[in-house]
Model the fold of this input.
Amino acid sequence: MHAGKKFKAIEFIVWTKRSILCLTILSAIPTVLYYLGWKFISFPWQPIAIMGTAVAFIVGFKNNASYSRLWEARQIYGAIINESRSFGYVLRDSLSRKNSEKVKTMFKRHYAWLTALRFQLREPRAWENMNTAQYEEYARKYDICEKLLKLDDELKSYLSDDELKYILSKKNRATQLMASQSKELSEAYANGEINDFQWTQINQQLVKLTENQGKTERIKNFPYPRNFSSITTYLLLLFIFFVPFGLLKEFDKIGEGTFLESYTLWFNIPFSILVTWCFHTLDSVGEASVNPFEGSPNDVPITQISRTIEIDMRDMLDETDLPPAITPKNNIVL
Done:
């Protein structure tokens, strides 16, 4: 998540420099050919303008859908924050007097669940964008700790050796950690450490946390529909290709009868770049937000949120050796 006041104009330019280069070439080629006498390559601008209207609608639709996915993901993690705090104090107040060690164990297992979940959500998918050159270059400004660290090492501080070995043998580690929480809770209930009401309260929090895990997995594993994404890309590319051809005659006419005659044609290059860059960048903005867990500057900061939850829950147990909060690096926090 970008934690600064705004993206600077230079950041947008650097982020889209590859696109700008391609758009410059696409604009320059028809302009040079027209100047050399290939007048027949000029297209009427009216149908291109109609195409541009259609592209504007479909790009706007994609951006709206992308923002909806991003905002839903943020709401889910907001719910995880609240439910984790509720789970923490209800568990502490129900078990602390009778079995404080079990409270600490279940608290640590919850930190492990948060860790396993964020590592799972950072796993790459074929449709995500972080492996493209444009995003890889920008990603050098910050660190994605889930890509630099190993899950095994991160879980060691939370789980016993036997439980760590058991959890790592499973495919969905976060789910199995929550199942272990439920099992330990059932044992506490069977041993009379908690009553019916307390068992129900804590169990309800586990169910809610599991539901939110499922919601994050749904967003992670179900991409923005490929049919909508593909048609947006194809129409956008067609529009970008035809814009320089549609503006050739218009800019050539501007200088007729003046000392600028035959020179105004060259305005076609910068104006075509400007128009096509606007459309392409709008599409790129939507593409940057459509997968809210992959680790881009526009994504939900799940690492920071997980650390915040851990600090809050450790504070509930009056621990003094709290982990440091995650702070932004180059205005980016993940």
